[in-house]
Sequence to fold (538 residues):
Amino acid sequence: MSEEFAAATISEVAPLLRERKVSPVELTLWHLDRVAKLNARLNAFITVLGDQAMAQAREAEAEIARGDYRGPLHGIPVAIKDIIAIAGVRMTCGSRILADHISARDATVVARLRAAGAILLGTLHLHEFAWGGTSINPHYGNARNPWNLDCIAGGSSGGSAIAVATSMAMATLGTDTGGSVRIPSALCGTTGLKPTYGRVSRDGVFPLCNSLDHVGVLTRSAQDAALMLNAIAGADPRDPSSAGSPVPDYSRELNANIRKLRVGQLRGFFAEDIQDEIESGLESAVQALRGLDAQVDEVTLPLMKHMPGASLAIMTAESYAVHERMIRERAQDYGVDVRLRLMMGAMVSAPQYLKAQRFRTLLCEQTAEAMRRFDLLVAPTTAITATPATQESVRVGSKDLVVAASLSRLTRPANMTGLPAIALPSGFSREGLPVSFQIIGRPFDEATVLRAAHAYQSATDWHRRRPAE
Amino acid sequence: MSIDRARVAAIVQAGLDRAGVRLDAGELAQLEALTATMLEGVYQLDELNISGQVEPALIFSVAKPQDDE
Fold:
């Protein structure tokens, strides 16, 4: 059985755990062995909780044996981005500044995973303070792309994507402020869901930008994303930004067909300056959705051309406000790229920040208007595939583009609008690097996003591909 | 839209002074370039003539959609 764990999803393993055909101890040990074997090469984990994970696994085994089965995450090994608090465990945020910080209690999402019976394997590598899309990190080394070790894994949740792609964990948590769940998912070939703003509590998560931060999940399938979201979604009195909207069972309608679902293929801003292979990946995904009888039509959002400027002003101003004191006292302890991004926020005036937030209101209105005609929107996740870690610009058509900007340009709109979005593998480049597209839904309609994603993955097998070892 | 380099340099220096942060010459040049790009994007929002009556998305919440069926 053990070798089959490498390709297995939670949805496949959970029934075996429930029926005691697989033991949580065996499953956890197998994953810890994977971490021991692969982590030095890939740099996905910052802290491995071997003893604690095994103790949790033994407890899960005993509970299941006596009939106290908690549900599909019971006995499932997962891992957590190292910016989300686990009680008694260091939370470095990928920084030197918080290298020795120990969390006093679990973040709400971690507590909910524990309550669901998940096994916590450890904390995962990230771009310093989640402020970047590459997971190049001067303090903990670079996270490495499992499809090509010379390439970036994407970020900021780089370790979260690597761990899932290489079967070091069955699912992981990440955070997404400008694409930080979806970008590494795209570059490493995993499924990455950013729910609606407010759907999942951010209590216990070190903030980057308060009005843009989301917690999301990285998995091997949309079906597994639904299981993870079931466990962590819902209002939380500890997080005033969390929403009180009822949480449906995201697994329940996953298998319903998507016939007649109205899908808007985003053009204009979303079709500019993207690599040919990314465009091909999107087109093949659109064909697959049409093959499932979805109705696909093109749509443009003209205000989107102003999104990058407004988004950058909000991100830099809000993140600077979080770090103002630390950067004054310890500027030299930040990596150069993050130090400069944070300092950009000191250059944004209050009127400029408000103007950007007013623009955001208009952008939300224009997007909502488009979504009256469509149930879902589709677009590429990133404009480019993974680039070598040493490369700062990339040639696309006749232009030389900045890698960091090309990674996040198409993911930031869902942060600005707060809409749910899932990144899904949709092919490979000539160099063998994953290509991805995203499905974006209406507010709090993760159920339709996941249903369409599951239908797509039932008709394709890109999400089943694994990197060579 | 091109942005006046001297003006950006002045904005950056004022921001660094306010923040109490010092950078070396190389980083200062990088920060000026990054800030110029960002401010260019912010100034372009002026093209939209956004009314002061538009509520800024300060306390951000995503409304549940109305049933449009």
User: Anything to note?
Assistant: DSSP finds two helices and no strands in chain B. The radius of gyration of chain B is 18 Å. Residues 25 and 52 of chain B are 39 Å apart (CA to CA).
